[in-house]
Design a protein that fits this description.
alpha/beta; Rossmann fold; SDR; SDR_fam; single chain; 7 strands; 8 helices; oxidoreductase activity; 251 residues
Length: 251
């Protein structure tokens, strides 16, 4: 365990698996107490909590659908009651439906926008007053390169994530006077245990040719940058979009 985030309380949404899990472990390794948010799988979230505790850290699981404001505010209230504050917010939860725009449905639009955009708005709105009151905080929102350059079959997810990027820039201006930073991380394709294995097997060679580093990203590639943005070392970084994408998008 390091101590760069010792005494800090971090909320990571969608933290029971994949990228969220790696972020939770990285923040805990730096000394933060981690609120592991989940929606559907308590088993996965509790496994992350157990792993953090086994490594000497502190964590607790909290269920909330980030797309529902009342559930988010109840979760944040519970975290503040349990630990006293929320110093770090990582908006990781997301839903992506890969489909041609003309074939998508309003139900699919709502599912992605509720989690990717409204979920980020909800969590930021719930934690911002606490960060302002304590005169400090870190907000980090995960987006995707599709939200910056556009990508076929990802129109709705791209639109929702682009909204999250815009929100970070606005909050950076509004909350900066309270020593709260707000940044986004733009991801390339990340291979997880829940990726479409058949699709990747059929298209891996074609995909990796689009990446100068010639590989698809892994969840562990993301966590170190999140931990850095949460630290005092990033205290003069705000309103930025940092790319972790193997060189896929260079803007």
């Amino acid at each position: 365990m390091n101590a760069k985030l010792n005494g800090k309380i971090a909320l990571v949404t969608g933290a029971g698996r994949d990228v969220g899990r790696e972020i939770s472990l990285a923040l805990a390794a730096e000394g933060a107490t981690v609120a592991v948010n989940y929606n559907s799988s308590a088993t996965e979230a509790e496994a992350v909590v157990a792993e953090i505790k086994k490594l000497g850290g502190n964590a607790r699981a909290y269920r909330a659908n980030v797309g529902k404001y009342e559930e988010v505010t109840a979760m944040v209230d519970a975290i503040v009651k349990d630990f006293g504050s929320v110093d770090i917010l990582v908006n990781n939860a997301g839903v992506v439906i890969n489909e041609r725009f003309v074939n998508t449905t309003p139900e699919q639009w709502a599912k992605q926008i509720d989690v990717c955009l409204y979920g980020t708005i909800h969590t930021c709105h719930a934690v911002a007053p606490h960060m302002i009151k304590q005169n400090g905080g870190r907000i980090i929102t995960l987006a995707g390169d599709s939200s910056r350059i556009g990508e076929s079959n990802l129109a709705i997810a791209a639109a929702a994530r682009a909204g999250g990027i815009a929100l970070m820039k606005s909050l950076a201006r509004e909350l900066g006077r309270a020593n709260v930073t707000a940044n986004a991380i733009s991801l390339g394709l990340i291979e997880t245990a829940h990726s479409d294995a058949d699709f990747l097997a059929a298209n891996r060679d074609k995909i990796v040719k689009q990446y100068p580093l010639r590989r698809i990203g892994k969840p562990a590639d993301i966590a170190p940058t999140v931990a850095f943005l949460a630290s005092d070392g990033a205290s003069w970084i705000t309103g930025q979009v940092l790319s972790i994408n193997g060189g896929f998008c260079m803007v």
